[in-house]
Amino acid sequence: MATLYVSPHPDDFRSLLALITAEFCRSSRPRTVTEDPPASLNARSRPILVLGAGEGDCVLSGASAVAWYLALQGKIAGVDVKQQSLVWQWLSFADNELTPVSGAVVFSLMGMIGVDKKLQQSSRVELIRVLKVLNRALEPRTFLVGESITLADVAVATAVLLPFKYALEPSDRKVLTNVTRWFTTCINQPQFLKVLGKITLCEKMVPIAANTTLATDAEAANGSPAADPTSATANGPPKTEAQLKKEAKKREKLEKFNQKKEIEAKKKTQPPTEKKAKPEKKELGVITYDIPTPAGEKKNVLSPLPDSYSPQYVEAAWYSWWEKQGFFKPEYGRTSITEQNPRGIFMMCIPPPNVTGSLHLGHALTNAIQDCLTRWHRMRGETTLWNPGCDHAGIATQVVVEKKLMREGGVSRHDLGREKFIQEVWKWKNEKGDRIYHQLKKLGSSLDWDRACFTMDSKLSYAVQEAFIRMHDEGVIYRSKRLVNWSCTLNSAISDIEVDKKELTGRTLLPVPGYKEKVEFGVLVSFAYKVDGTDEEVIVATTRIETMLGDTAVAVHPADPRYQHLKGKTVLHPFCDRKMPIVFDDFVDISFGTGAVKITPAHDHNDYEVGERHNLAFINIMDENGLLINVPPPFLGMKRFEARKAVLQALKDRGQFKEVKDNPMVVPVCSRSKDIVEPLLKPQWYVNCTEMGKEAADAVREGRLKIIPDHHLKTWFNWMDNIRDWCISRQLWWGHRIPAYFITVHDPFVKPGEDMDGHYWVSGRSEEEAREKAAKRFNVSADKITLRQDEDVLDTWFSSGIFPFSIFGWPNETQDLNVFYPGTLLETGHDILFFWVARMVMMGLKLTGKLPFNEVRPVEAAKNHYVAQLDMMLVLDGHNSVMMMFLLQVYLHAVVRDAHGRKMSKSLGNVIDPLDVITGISLEGLHAQLMDSNLDPVEVEKAKQGQKSDYPNGIPECGTDALRFALCAYTSQGRDINLDVNRILGYRHFCNKLWNAVKFTMKTLGNNFVPSEKAQLCGEESVSDRWILSRLSAAVGLCDAGFKAYDFPAITTAIYNFWLYELCDVYLESVKPVFSKAEEDSTSQRQAQVCRKTLYTCLDVGLRLLSPFMPFVTEELYQRLPRRQPQSDPPSISVTSYPNTEEFCWHSEEVDRDMEFVMTVVKTIRSLRADYNLTKTRADCYLQCIDSATVSVVQKYSLQIQTLSSSQAIIPLTAGQPVPEGCAVAIASDRCTVNLMLKGLIDVEKEVAKLMTKKSDLEKQMDKMREKMTKNDYKEKVPVKVQEQDAEKVGKIN
Asked: Subunit arrangement (predicted)?
């Protein structure tokens, strides 16, 4: 095992860097040691990492080297070479840029270096400047490199740790919003928390009152006299001159501090002076669209654009127009859906949300991804259908309506009766059930609403009935009495997905519906059974003591020597005359407890199987309400958990109780009712999944079906190979009533049947059909048959399993079914992969012979995107050996968490309604939502604090477009998305950038501009034009590749960078002089006209690239632009062609490379101007180039460099040409040095004085270091670590 030597000092950020990085090495975390490393290592500057366990160990020293090695082990050094290079750059940034200024600011506060207020202030200014650079880099990002945490984040976060703790006040953090957001995210990661604990951010920058140990450590680290081994203690020899000087400085500081306190105290006694009012903070503008526009009519786009972007203005009126125009229908633009489309077909059905549901961020994420894909395929010209639907949500809906009836009228469903209750549910559905559809429209989802389906509609209900009858007739669905998950509160069986597994570490009291007092769980009760005819006893243990009333055996292992003599013996039940056999079964764990297990076949899944193997009695001791039956008094009729106490007391009274002890366990809780789930024997309908599961598993094994990424394979095979039969009965009234009938035959020659006997059950599409089947089965006339339809309904997952083909009218051969089934893609959450996806695969293959989804092109899964692809390959062997590949695609999206990585929870106050992000909400509004929830008062208060912390000013209005863009940009984080509202707000500001760019362009184009019919080069483009068209083509290529690979962050990054950093920041700025001189002569006019065409092309293509992500703002802006072919161009951007690489093929690596060099020069000039505060003054700039090729590039781009750097003139020089005196110098690259003429522009004496002051300070530091290092015993007494630090300081000063 490797050993990591670190400093014990809590603020040694270099050691903290190594420790945090080590936390990512789950399987290879090194042993941590805080003592000095052994002298034999010859390297004592911590952190040190020793690899190996003997002589010849590999030793790594220095924070960067150690952290890099550990990051590689922990897989946070970057996923590829490009990312690793970026991580290394940030590591250098932390070392060379941040650490020096952070130390200069903080060390003086900690008393580690002398306090020079002037130096401290200048250092603080420099720190803020560096952090602003970091702030801009983080503006579009959550983490520095990629979309998950890397060593870059760890290194930079530890470099700014001390400033955040001690120096950056709230006002500073307000300026550095992106850095603060990112830093908070980092320190709340588990690895940071484990090392740092909870970090408190600085409220006011004051000297830090360190304890003695900390002060000593700090001084030792900096070589101050306190670290000098010759220093005397209070009772030692006389103090040295250095000590006396230090004490004098301390007294001076103390006097100044006391004087300051006195002044503050005087101020408090004086009457307060009137403070100058601070200017109000500029709020985000709210502009509304007030022009009367009937629903479905086109929005007025002739009025001028408002001054700034406002979501309320932009999002008004467009959706109803899109819908009325039929843009979302697959029939749009063609005579029939059966018409052959060479571009292909894209079909996707929505994972049907519950009718009771309301939109949450999980829905918003799902629909943002789905709608982007749908809009992209539609813009590519494919026949596109995104089919909406809603699930009837049997249990959830019935519970909602039952509560409503009880609240409003004090009646239960039983008071109303089944028929009237179902009428009430339909009434509720028609009033409230469409709410989620309205929310989906608010998100801009381009669904074909004319095809919307509800799982209880007649079309889908018929399909469900048909599926049941066909599978029942084949024997795949059968009747059996088995253990089910039973909710006593709901009086129904529930599916596994509706059972929450609550983990307990020991004794816990839990609330249970119907009980006033909480019930005890998490304990193991031991008691004894007497062996019949002997004085012996067998001790058993259970976590559910009340179930012993239904025990019918005791089991031991066949090889257990302790019980061999009890073969053939029985034990006596203490509360009745039941004799129970001692059975020998391999399932018993010899090592657990006494090795003897009580067997309750009717109330435990394992015991049920033992009971089957040994032909034991199955005694059901509980009815559907949880009351005890088939038990002796006094337990008869007791509630199950009251019987728990009574049985325990009765065992104690009989002397058969042994002990109670804590026992970690999992308690099954009904997710709907919060009741404790009971295993209960009930006759139910089951689907035999053995053969269907085998087909699904074999399809993967044989390569016909692929699941990507591979980590899902193990779960898939485990689930399919060990699949249990599926219980599809639910004891509800709302749902698809099971079309099965129990047969009573009125004939003396036919014996009466039992409920669990499948021979006496028949299914049919009507009672008449069922009667005919029954008469034929028993060979009697139909008039001798009486039928009773099963009261139960089908599990909701049954109708969901056939949803992909039932929505198209299956089993009827409809046009939609022939065209759109199988579909192309299913996009859903990974949590229901095997509850829904697997059932769709099994039932699709069973009932249609096809996989439910296909796509006619191979797709590669991007890393971390959780795409499960199921490929069905069909090879058509003919003369040309044609191969087609059909892909079942299942895109599994991420789980949404808050900005700190915490799971969304109402009790934390971090659950966000996406509509609140879209429209904005105050903090009071968020609090009000908590009051309407089911949280108890303590949780409400906790949640309020969480909201106050995360959203002190509420949530600002971000708009639909910004929310959609943010969610898609986040998807590469894998399974978890840490959603930060500030980042969404950043994308609203991005919308404003687009807005301003289009306003500028429209003004520049003028009213008479007519674009060419086709986007093409004319040959007269300037270097700026060629560069921006190259970058536009590159963006088109990245978006095309990104969509094909489902790499949404790659697409959003490409679009964001093009619009913000290339078009707005560079191109628009560089061409302003062209337009300002447009009327000077014919050449200038022609150049301006070419520039206008380029600008139009950029906006036209840029808006189309962005349209799938931001449909509202792109439509608003696109409608304002002139058309290339007004008579034939599509009426909406949503049905305009998506840009492709064949049309936009102007990418030039040479042009990109030249412009990258130019921008490096520009940034260097800007940096020099900032250093000398040349905010408005323009200076001549001499660019000394290494060769003639570089001179040529500078000459070619001189106008761009001059414009973008605000220079007076750009003068290229060869390497041999002299540079005029009076220039400030900076190296732009290995090819060019920037010389900025300052002569006559700055106060030279003032600048020289600054430099002399700095030089003097450095000389003082150097003298102090030399004095310390030349002492006789320095080498022997001062730790090697400190010596190395001193040498490093001297090197830096020199």
From this structure: Forms high-molecular-mass aggregates with elongation factor 1.
CA–centroid distance for 719 within its chain? 26
Q: What is the DSSP string of 865-891?
A: S-EEEEEEEEEE-STT-EEEEEEEEEE
Angle (nearest 5°) at CA 20 between 16 and 22: 115
The answer to whether the beta carbons of residues 579 and 617 sit under 8 Å apart is no
What value does the CA radius of gyration of the chain take, rounded to a whole number of Å?
A: 38
Gap between the Cα atoms of 316 and 442, Å rounded = 10
Q: What is the DSSP string of 1158-1208?
A: HHHHHHHHHHHHHHTT-SS---EEEEEESSHHHHHHHHHTHHHHHHHHT-S
Nearest CA-CA partner of 757 in 772, 769, 745:
745
Closest CA to 202 of 168, 179, 177: 168
CB proximity list for 606: less than 8 A, separation 6 or greater: 587
Tokens 């699930």 — which residue?
Answer: 391
- The answer to whether 846 and 692 are in contact (CB under 8 A) is yes
Distance CA 985, CA 316 (A): 20
Phi, psi of 816 (to 5 degrees): -60, -40
Q: Give residue for tokens 């009836």.
A: 405
The residue to which tokens 């998305």 are assigned: 977
CB 471 within 8 A of CB 801: no
Contact 990, 297 (CB under 8 A): no
Q: What is the 3-state secondary structure (H, E, C) of 940-982?
A: HHHHHHHHHHHCECEECCCCHHHHHHHHHHHHHHCCEEEECHH
Tell me the residue length of the chain: 1294
Q: Helix 937-950 and helix 923-931: axis angle, to 10°? A: 160
Burial of 1234 (0-12, 13-18, 19+ CB in 10 A): buried
What are the φ and ψ backbone dihedral angles of 513, each rounded to 5 degrees? Answer: -55, 135
Eight-state DSSP code of residue 463: H
3-class secondary structure, 1037: helix
Q: Which two tokens stand for residue 352?
A: 């049907």
Please give the single-letter amino acid code of residue 1050.
A
* DSSP H/E element including 1044: helix 1023-1044
SS3 500: strand
Give φ, ψ of 769 to 5 degrees: -60, -40
Residue among 994, 997, 1050, 1017 at smallest CA distance from 1148: 1017
Joined together, the tokens standing for residue 1015 give: 């986007």
Asked if residues 668 and 499 have their Cβ atoms less than 8 Å apart, the reply is yes
Q: What is the mean pLDDT of each run of 10 residues along the chain (1294 residues)?
A: 86 91 86 82 76 68 89 89 87 87 82 63 85 86 84 94 91 87 86 89 78 36 34 40 57 61 58 42 70 93 92 95 96 91 92 79 82 96 95 89 89 92 93 84 95 95 97 96 92 86 92 93 96 94 96 96 95 95 95 93 94 95 94 94 96 95 94 91 94 86 69 79 91 96 93 91 96 95 95 94 94 94 73 73 91 43 32 25 31 51 55 85 86 68 82 89 91 56 88 94 90 90 95 96 91 96 94 84 88 96 98 97 92 97 93 94 93 88 94 94 94 92 91 92 80 84 86 82 83 73
DSSP 76-106: -S-SSHHHHHHHHHHHHHIIIIIHHHHHHHH
Contacts of 695-702 with CB under 8 Å at 24 or more apart are 695/842, 695/845, 696/720, 696/838, 696/841, 696/842, 696/845, 697/721, 699/845, 699/870, 699/872, 700/870
- Say how far apart CA 611 and CA 712 lie, in whole Å: 35
Q: Which two tokens stand for residue 1216?
A: 């041999």
Secondary structure tally for the chain: helices H, strands E: 45, 37
Task: Convert 78-111 to b/e letters by CB count within 10 Å (16 or more is b).
Answer: beeeeebebbbebbebbbebbbbbbbbbbbbbbb
